Amino acid sequence: MVGRDHYGVFPLKGKLLNVRDASNSMILNNQEIQNLMKIVGLQLGKDYSNPESLAALRYGCVMIMADQDHDGSHIKGLVINFFEPFWPSLVAKAGFLKEFVTPIVKVSKK
Residue 97: how many CB atoms within 10 A of its CB? Predict the structure, then answer.
């Protein structure tokens, strides 16, 4: 299926806040985190281990797409790091967090 009813794209602006080093007020006041939570439909402190609560999310998975360089790897880690302390059931659920592996291409003349 193709279309906005089934897929959404959210471009992060820069690197996501490292939630492990941040205070609760920093996390709650971070606009990128608030946007991501709103888009996916996440609620702080909610357990998503049962099918009913999982069905309440706006999307069935989150796919992380970043460059295959050091910054891209860091961004992927920060996104996973964002989910793990607040929603460990989503990280443990096979297939909720996905990674789109972009190809690395070497170009040469001739």
Answer: 19
For the chain of 110 residues, list the mean pLDDT of each consecutive stretch of 10: 72 88 92 93 90 90 88 91 93 87 82
Read off φ and ψ for residue 65, nearest 5 degrees.
Answer: -125, 115
In the numeric block, the tokens 């790897």 are attached to: 73
Q: How far are the Cα atoms of 19, 24, 61, 92, 106 from residue 103, in angstroms, in the given order?
A: 29, 37, 22, 26, 10
8 Å CB contact between 51 and 57? no
Tracing tokens 């888009």 back to the chain, one arrives at 39
In terms of DSSP bridges, do strands 97-100 and 62-65 run parallel, antiparallel, or are they unpaired? parallel
**pLDDT value of residue 81:** 94
- Phi, psi dihedrals of residue 85, rounded to the nearest 5°: -75, -30
Q: What pTM, to 2 d.p., does this model score?
A: 0.82
